[in-house]
Amino acid sequence: MRHMLHIVKINLINGLRRDTVYFAENWSNVLSTLLYTVMEILLIEFLFGRITSIAGFSKNEVYFLLLIGQLQFYIIGGLSFTPAANITVKIGQGMLDFALTKPVPIRLFMYTNEMSLVRTVRDAVPPLIPVILIVNWSDLSFTPSTIFAGVFIFICGLWLDHALVFTLMVINMWTGSSSPFILNYFWAEHIETKLPFEATFYWFRAIALVLLPAIIGTSLAVSVMLGKSNALFWGILVATATIISVGITQILWQRALKAYSSASS
Amino acid sequence: MLWSIKTLAIITYITALRYVHYPIELLMAALNRFTTVAMVTLFWFIVARNSDVGVEVLDLVGYFLIVSGLSQLMLGGLAGASAVHKRIMDGSLNAYLIRPMHPFFYLYYQQVGYLAPFFFLSFFLIFLGVSLSANLATISIPLIVLTFVCAYAINVSFNILIGSIGFYVVEASGIKNAFGHIIYMSQGFLIPIFLTPQWWQNYVFASPFAASLYNPIRAFQGEHLETWYLISGAVWALVLIPVSLRVWKRAIRQYEGVGI
Q1: Interchain CB contact of A207 with B (< 8 Å)
Q2: Is B42 left (phi over 0), alpha (psi -120 to 50) or beta?
Q3: Which end of chain B, N or C, is more open, meaning fewer C-beta atoms within 10 Å of its C-beta?
Q4: d(CA B152, CA B75)
Q5: Which DSSP string do the residues of A133-179 spell out, in sequence order?
Q6: Which chain A residue's Cα is nearest to B168?
Q7: Closest residue of A to B25, CA-based?
Q8: Which of B36, B173, B195 sits opposite A46 (nearest CB)?
Q9: Is the pTM higher than 0.80?
Q10: Radius of gyration of chain A (CA)
């Protein structure tokens, strides 16, 4: 355990140095994420200028959904999408060989090595602040139990989303390149986090829970937090899916390593 | 004039041929676009069905199908600007500067070539959107042509102007994305302009944004467009093209690169 923590620490420090070398040059990303949020706020304002609710969601609840969706997007973007996209390129270039020679847990090493915590925090915090301030917290119908269940589903949703991205990444070991698969999912995720869970069709929920799991950490988690969905039912279902996905990703990784071939080091 | 339509067509064709060697990439990129369109359409279907927005579901779905098709046809995602930024950053713009062509248009039509296979999807989406939502009796072909030409010219100008920023800033992708968000919102990509308040409509119709996407969409749907919307669009197209080329000419003086 100490060994693993040491690897994480070293990689995070390296990532910190990497992110801060051209710090000033990368501030334009903050402008981009901030403007994205401003435009989303405008969209909600314009929409609710003409309507009173969407599938039982008030404007305030839609803002809360936007907040959780954005939070999930930045966490998964920084900790899963970015590393997966970078690792995909490295596998394609045969650079996994070098990592395989190290006496370390390869998955942990590669992911923590590619994470950009500073960039994630820098891009995420400024746009989240206005949304946090806009939400009228006293108007949301939370209870301690629904918050606990919602947070639990949010965390499981993050894992399930990561598990899918990881699965798309390891396809690389067989095909040589899986970046189109990852990018495809990345763009779909932009939209699905905006959908109120109650508004979607049953068939869409069934498909989304498997193929677009970002909806679990956003729409479903928000629905449970606001007491609109059955916390116990969804909590058990999502927990079961999470346990199964841990096993699947482990098996996939073992098989993918056996399938990996390269002529460089 | 050292470049011609024939040369640009050849560049587009040659670039599009790359997909012959990368069929999986083509398939996944097509799936990517299809998923994005499906999710956007689903979102607005849900809005129209589950709220009192006062717009027919098919009108709204048709609108967003046409949006997705048209935006891709006109490189509304600023792919031309991205290509310029990339070449400036890695210094490979040199290879384009030595050719007897305007470097921007060479790069731009390369991007058109990359996207060419997806134009079939664009045409299909526009056809589907028109079939679902348009009042066929009121569709005017000259109006569609006029609004489309203006929109195309304005989108090319956006690509040139935002591409030129790359000559002044080392990492310009964030700035490009920031402009992209403003453009998407203002041109009716994220929300139909007829659903927005009057003050916003005044702003977008006086700016080049509405003419860059919204006007041709409404023309395709057979909707009436105010005369001043059309005049505003035509004026912006006529002004922006020479202005953007002038900005490019000034900006390119900042460029330094080693090698070819």
Answers
A1: no
A2: alpha
A3: N
A4: 9
A5: HHS-GGGS---HHHHHHHHHHHHHHHHHHHHHHHHHHHTHHHHS--H
A6: A25
A7: A180
A8: B195
A9: yes
A10: 20
Mean of the pLDDT values across residues A213-240? Answer: 91
The pLDDT score that the predictor gives to residue A192 is 60
| pLDDT tens, residue by residue, A44-58 | 999 888 888 888 889
Rg (CA), chain B: 19
Tally of residues, chain B: 260
Q: Which chain B residues contact residue A47 at CB under 8 A?
A: 47, 53, 191, 195
Three-class SS of B25-42: HHHHHHHHHHHHHHHHHH
What tokens were used for B93?
Answer: 């713009």
Strand partners, A57: A54
Does the CB of A22 have a partner CB in chain B at under 8 Å?
yes
Option in A32, A51, A194 nearest B51 (CB):
A51
Q: Whose CA is closest to B255, among B187, B180, B164, B182? A: B164
- Tens of pLDDT, residue by residue over B190-206, are 889 998 999 999 999 99
CB–CB contact B174 A32 (8 Å): yes
Query: Given pLDDT bands bounded at 50, 70 and 90, which one contains residue A31?
Result: confident
How would you classify residue A142: left for phi > 0, otherwise alpha for psi between -120 and 50, otherwise beta?
beta
Q: Does A181 touch chain B (CB under 8 A)?
A: yes
